[in-house]
């Protein structure tokens, strides 16, 4: 598991007064006039003389000149950092958070920790705090992102609570990264507001999708899972408003003890009422956040809901809908469903269990969340040859 947050050590004086977003380069030949926009990273274990003119410097040993401002010693756990990665430095706490990795397909930006749902299995439990500073940080970092970035996720909390500031962020992406896929994880409730939905649609980003959870065909079950009254009706209105405005919508279903039994009923509801959505994603449970506290209400071993999942996928697939299964291990999934399984767990928190070491399907399998050691299936079994 990669560490995205770490303590760092300032070796010289700094002119940074507050949390600062910086882009990393390992190119010491950048023209002088552009160096002030970068932190230079050096992984050489020998004595070096750092080039002048960079905003700051990252090193991994003390064998270095100390004449430059903003010279930071990084722990070896951050040695994976590379050219065009983006980090946030907090000079008051001497900490650093990695917020964009150029080589990773799993970049996601946290827009807010506030939320108007309180989902039983929330992996990012909401906090009622003023984190509006994140808006300006994200606005400032978008121009730093490599123009070849394929996809970026936006999450929370609930991003739509930002209102007009979410529109600002999406417009900034449209200006600087028009060809990058933007995927917004949202409960969809605010899109019941036609005016807000229209402002979102006016951004006209080339590849923007909203991932919206729908946990049941029965309103009170959905509302119980998200712990919010009338959330079901508001979510449906939001989905319909977005599709009326030709926005891409993905329906996301986290499978657990409260949702598995009616997966086929939900699929029937979708093909009868929401056939116009762009994607349906069935998600495995991540055992972190609120899931840990509610595990007895949520955990069901995947082999015990395979028939329900097969029925749901077949209904949706037969009607031509795009269906995917995420966060599941192949040895726990019926082979009928393998064509729909995707490797999806973010690379920085994806692991495999000891049972997987000799499995011939390991490279095709999605693996486990790093938190899965707290509870994982009793039926994990490696495939030792193609006949098993």
Keywords:
388 residues, alpha/beta, TIM Barrel, 2 domains, seven-stranded parallel β-sheet, globular
Class derived from helix and strand content:
alpha/beta
Question: Which range does the strand content fall in?
Answer: 15-25%
Mean pLDDT rating: 92
In CATH, the topology of the largest domain is named TIM Barrel
CATH class of the largest domain: Alpha Beta
Q: Based on the structure given, which CATH architecture of the largest domain is correct? A: Alpha-Beta Barrel
Give the low-confidence spans.
none
What is the topology, as strand order, of the major beta sheet? 1-8-7-3-4-5-6-2
Number of helices: 10
Short recap of the structure:
With 388 residues, this protein is of the alpha/beta class. It is 23% helix and 19% strand. It folds into 2 domains: 5-100, no CATH class; 108-374, Aldolase class I (TIM Barrel).
Question: Could you please describe the fold and organization of this structure?
Answer:
With 388 residues, the chain is of the alpha/beta class. It has two domains: 5-100, no CATH class; 108-374, Aldolase class I (TIM Barrel, Alpha-Beta Barrel). 23% of the residues lie in helices and 19% in strands. It contains ten helices and 17 strands. β11, α4 (194-202) and β12 form a beta-alpha-beta unit. α7 packs parallel to α10.
């Amino acid at each position: 598991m990669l560490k995205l947050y770490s303590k760092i050590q300032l070796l010289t004086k700094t002119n940074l007064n507050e949390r600062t977003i910086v882009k990393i380069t390992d190119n010491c030949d950048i023209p002088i006039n552009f160096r002030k926009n970068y932190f230079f990273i050096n992984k050489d274990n020998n004595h070096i003389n750092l080039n002048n003119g960079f905003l700051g410097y990252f090193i991994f040993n003390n064998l270095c000149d100390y004449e430059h401002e903003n010279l930071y010693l990084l722990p070896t756990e951050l040695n994976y950092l590379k050219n065009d990665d983006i980090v946030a430095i907090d000079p008051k706490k001497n900490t650093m958070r990695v917020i964009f990795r150029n080589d990773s397909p799993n970049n996601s930006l946290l827009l807010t920790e506030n939320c108007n749902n309180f989902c039983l299995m929330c992996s990012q439990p909401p906090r009622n705090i003023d984190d509006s500073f994140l808006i300006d940080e994200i606005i400032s970092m978008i121009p730093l992102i490599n123009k070849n970035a394929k996809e970026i996720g936006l999450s929370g909390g609930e991003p739509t609570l930002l209102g007009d500031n979410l529109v600002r962020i999406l417009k900034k992406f449209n200006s600087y990264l028009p060809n990058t896929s933007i995927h917004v994880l949202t409960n969809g409730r605010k899109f019941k507001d036609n005016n807000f939905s229209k402002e979102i649609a006016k951004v006209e980003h080339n590849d923007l999708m909203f991932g919206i959870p729908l946990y049941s065909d029965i309103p009170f079950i959905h509302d119980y899972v998200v712990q919010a009254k009338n959330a079901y009706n508001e979510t449906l209105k939001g989905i319909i408003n977005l599709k009326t405005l030709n926005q891409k919508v993905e329906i996301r279903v986290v499978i657990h003890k409260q949702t598995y039994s009616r997966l086929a009923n939900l699929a029937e509801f979708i093909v009868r009422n929401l056939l116009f959505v762009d994607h349906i994603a069935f998600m495995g449970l991540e055992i972190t956040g609120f899931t840990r506290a509610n595990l007895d209400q949520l955990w069901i071993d995947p082999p015990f809901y395979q028939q329900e999942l097969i029925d749901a996928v077949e209904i949706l697939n037969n009607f031509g809908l795009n269906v995917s299964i995420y966060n599941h291990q192949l040895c726990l999934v019926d082979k009928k469903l393998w064509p729909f399984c995707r490797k999806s767990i973010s690379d920085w928190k994806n692991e495999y269990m000891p049972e997987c070491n000799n499995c011939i399907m390991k490279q095709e399998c999605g693996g486990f969340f790093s938190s899965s050691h707290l509870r994982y299936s009793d039926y994990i079994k490696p495939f030792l040859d193609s006949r098993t």
